[in-house]
Amino acid sequence: MGCTFSGLNALYDAVNGGADVWINENRFRIVRQLGEGGFAYVYLVKEVVNDSSASTSGGGGGLAKKVKETSHLSDDGTYAMKKVLIQNKEQLELVREEIRVSSLFCHPNLLPLLDHAIIAVKTNQEGSWNHEAYLLFPVQLDGTLLDNSNAMKAKKEFFSTSDVLQIFWQLCAGLKHMHNLEPPYAHNDLKPGNVLLTHRKGQPPLAILMDFGSARPARRQIRSRSEALQLQDWASEHCSAPFRAPELWDCPSHADIDERTDIWSLGCTLYAIMYGVSPFEYALGESGGSLQLAVVNAQIKWPAGPNPSYPEALRQFVTWMLQPQPAVRPCINDIIIHVDKLITKFSH
């Protein structure tokens, strides 16, 4: 049946002309496409359950026998499936690494990988094979923080101070889980587009950090100019520019890089939760110039903002995280202590 990863297979159901996908022993019907980017496509899928698997798993379908955390199972059998088209060995290794890293995490504010498979697919060229990867996740249909922010900006709406802090606290909790692993892992691409929101009646939105394709062990020793340039090249490909820490733009030839690169991105994301844009995108929109210079010099400008405006303590909190020198930037445990105090002070 082609190449497998960890002995797993994903197969199209030929009877349905590709409308159904098998991920290992479980079958899913594609409902509709949710999004795409690069070589990846995300679909809403629904598990197809036969009578025997439903009866043996208590009505939860075949997937219920594989997933240890029952809260990750869908009541109606719907999930999100990411399909990645893989055209070379480098892309194959990146997907394998994303699967490996995703499997390390278990936290309510980190999107869990429920199942996965990689298969070989024959191309039109004789004797040539590519691969396709299938990654299965819980589905969150309220969109990303970026989607929600764009919709709110169009209506000139803002999150309340209380919701800002509650969303941010959840991101900190997920990030703390990653930073406290041994070795610590950095997300490396923390931004509103990688945060899923689920709206809950009478409660703050549920925030879940996703997309661990750029996550790597956080701590790196840079001891030469060539190593510094290699890190910068890697960051330019894997870390979104408006949220990228200064040391990843202009890395010294002798530096100890650690998980505080994520703290910079966290500060940018808090600003974006408040104002719907990264601080450095906003600064460039106001005065123009170079994004890299704005980041390296920590040029922060503040919009007029909602009326009434956000508390000055919240702005100071952002500035505290956006320290250009990583050695004086706070760590995630410091951030959580501070945000707890702000929640106590400003939440109602």
From TrEMBL:
Domain (Protein kinase): residue spans on this chain: 28-348
Catalytic activity: L-threonyl-[protein] + ATP = O-phospho-L-threonyl-[protein] + ADP + H(+); L-seryl-[protein] + ATP = O-phospho-L-seryl-[protein] + ADP + H(+)
Record's keyword annotation contains Kinase: yes
EC number: 2.7.11.1
Annotated Gene3D superfamilies: Phosphorylase Kinase, domain 1, Transferase(Phosphotransferase) domain 1
This protein's UniProt keywords: ATP-binding, Kinase, Nucleotide-binding, Serine/threonine-protein kinase, Transferase
Residues that coordinate or bind ATP: K66
Transferase among keywords: yes
Domain of life: Eukaryota
Pfam families, per the entry: Pkinase
InterPro entries per record: Kinase-like_dom_sf, Prot_kinase_dom, Protein_kinase_ATP_BS, Ser/Thr-specific_kinases, Ser/Thr_kinase_AS
An MF annotation (GO) of this entry: ATP binding
Recorded family membership: Belongs to the protein kinase superfamily.
PANTHER family per UniProt: SERINE/THREONINE-PROTEIN KINASE 16, SERINE_THREONINE-PROTEIN KINASE 16
Protein name stated in the entry: non-specific serine/threonine protein kinase
